[in-house]
Every structure is written in C-alpha cells, then in structure tokens.
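Structure in, sequence out. Go:
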C-alpha cells in the first residue's frame, strides 16, 4: 500500500448497548489493527450497564465516546457517521472481533477498485468465550445485485463491511425524528433489517459496487443473549423493507418480491431450528417453496435441503440423537466451508 493510501483515515463506528462482557475484546481488536490511521467512534446508546466504564479504561487518543439518548442500532450508526472524519467508514458490533489485518486488506481492496464502494469479508462464528465454532458465513463475493442483498445479503453481519464515506453521502437524506432536522443514512424507524434496507438502497440508488474478500476477517459472536427469538418481528420488518424498496423501485420489486420473501422465510426457518421449533420451521419452508418461489430448491439445493432435513429430524428423533447428528453435520459443513474459503482465497490471490 502506498503512502497516500496509508494517510487515509478510517472511522470505526461501535454502537454500544449492554456489551460490558465483550466490549474490551472488541476495542482491543480495533486498536490492534495493522492499519493504524483510524479513529474509534463509540456511540453510547444510553447503555444501562458498565459498558461505558470499560471503554473509558482505554488510554488511546484515537478513541472518542459519544453519548446519546437511546435510538437503537441504526440511530447509533447514524450518529457515528455524522461524527466521522475518515474517508472510509467501518462498523463493528460491540461483541464481535476483527482479525488484525482486516482494515488493511479492505483498504487495499477499495483503493485498487475505484468502482467498489463496499468491501466486505466473510466471517467465522465464535462462541461466548471466543472459541471458534468451526463454521463460517460463506457469501457471494462478486457481481452483487440488489436481489442478492434481498435474498441472502453478502454482507453477512454488521461487522463485516468497510465503506467509502462517499457511499453514505450518496444516500444521505434529512428528516426530523427527534425534534430537529438531521442527516440520515440508515433508517432510524427500523429496529430490525435496517442493514438490509440500507444496502439495497445503496445498490439501487448509487453507482457503487459491492465486492468481497474471501477470507474470514471478522469473528461473529453467537451468544445466547443475542439470539433473536422474535421471529414474527423479523418477518414483519423484512416486509417493511420490501414495502419501502417498492416505493422507489416498484417494477424491480414486483419481480423480486417472491424470491426475496422465500429466501427470508428460509432464513427464519433456520432461526426457528436454533430455538428447537421444528414444526414452525417446516411451516416456514412450506411458505417459502410452495407459496412463493419453488426455484429456491434448484438455486440453492444444499442449504434448502439442510433446512428441511434439520427441521424433520428435530420433530422426529429424540433430542440427544438430534444433537449428535447436528454436531456431525456442523463439523462436515465446516470442513466444506474451509475448503471453499481456501479455493476462493487462492483464486483472488492469483
């Protein structure tokens, strides 16, 4: 990376709410980046625990802590963007971890591809104690379309992407939600699916492209407290995404609605399995395939079959046997995913 590129600052935005158990490890992973020209904007979203006190223990001039009345995750990200001084913006959730070379690899990626505004990485799952679970978020890396984002967003989580600040300038709008006019980027009225809504708007309304790095540079934490069990809210807010997208891209959304809805039903079906609701998972898969988009079977046979099989097993076999089968399946899936990552990494390096 040349010196001019190294001089470009990255604004790392950390929404903070109820994360005192993890936030120290998250901050350390930011400060330990090989790319050192950064600022860390921690947005305290009126966190009721000791998260802020933990952050205040770090003695690093690059850290700024901003306090605000609770606005939720999109509101915290918006506040961070408003205060960002960098030419690049990155988000990391307060319980996730970055590998040390993450930012450097993304900045190189963005600098070498002027038409790319959003660079993302794959992610490795870790548990509450930072132990790798051996499985990954494997996402499409190139030729990303709005439908890809609606169906199965390549930016697998809120800690995977790094953005040119110009991307957010291109989708900025003004609103008065709290008694005064402010600039907005994410939609503060969304408490779920706010990232999908934003990424789709970028893909449709701007010239910027999305592109991914094959390596899992983000460690995405799976913890019991963070596990989303409000499946109805997840369905309702995704419908809200579809409705908002249709307001400015009606013809496109008319074509995309059924596949997008089917893939989201499958996603919720998988979440239902994680909370041991096998019959609900099967109902959701019926909605996905029969009522919306049967082509999901052909387009993504493996993941669709895995979901149906897991739901059936959950309904039919004793819990101990199900857990043993699940452990074997996870290990095999992890092996295949690692093989895919190695192949894609080698291809990108050549």
């Amino acid at each position: 990376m040349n010196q001019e590129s190294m001089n470009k600052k990255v604004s790392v935005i950390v929404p903070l709410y109820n994360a005192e158990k993890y936030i120290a490890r998250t901050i350390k992973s930011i400060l330990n980046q090989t790319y050192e020209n950064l600022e860390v904007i921690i947005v305290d979203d009126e966190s009721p625990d000791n998260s802020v006190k933990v952050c205040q223990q770090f003695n690093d001039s690059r850290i700024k802590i901003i306090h605000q009345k609770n606005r939720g995750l999109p509101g915290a990200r918006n506040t961070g963007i408003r205060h960002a001084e960098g030419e690049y913006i990155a988000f990391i959730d307060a319980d996730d971890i970055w590998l040390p070379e993450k930012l450097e690899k993304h900045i190189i990626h963005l600098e070498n591809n002027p038409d790319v505004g959003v660079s993302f990485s794959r992610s490795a799952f870790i548990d509450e104690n930072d132990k790798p679970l051996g499985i990954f978020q494997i996402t499409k890396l190139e030729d990303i379309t709005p439908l890809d984002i609606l169906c199965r967003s390549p930016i697998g989580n809120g800690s995977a992407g790094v953005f040119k600040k110009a991307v957010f300038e291109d989708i900025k709008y003004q609103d008065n939600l709290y008694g005064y006019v402010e600039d907005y980027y994410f939609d503060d009225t969304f408490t779920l699916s706010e990232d999908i809504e934003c990424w789709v708007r970028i893909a449709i309304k701007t010239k910027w492209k999305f592109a991914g790095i094959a390596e899992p540079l983000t460690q995405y934490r799976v913890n019991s407290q963070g596990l989303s069990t409000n499946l109805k809210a997840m369905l309702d807010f995704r419908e809200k995404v579809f409705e908002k997208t249709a307001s400015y891209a009606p013809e496109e959304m008319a074509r995309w609605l059924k596949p997008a809805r089917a893939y989201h039903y499958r996603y919720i079906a998988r979440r239902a399995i994680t909370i041991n609701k096998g019959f609900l998972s099967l109902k959701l898969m019926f909605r996905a395939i029969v009522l919306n988009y049967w082509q999901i079977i052909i387009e993504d046979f493996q993941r669709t079959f895995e979901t149906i099989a897991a739901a059936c097993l959950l309904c039919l076999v004793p819990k101990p046997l199900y857990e043993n089968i699940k452990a074997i399946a996870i290990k095999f899936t992890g092996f295949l995913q690692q093989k895919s990552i190695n192949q894609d990494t080698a291809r990108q390096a050549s």
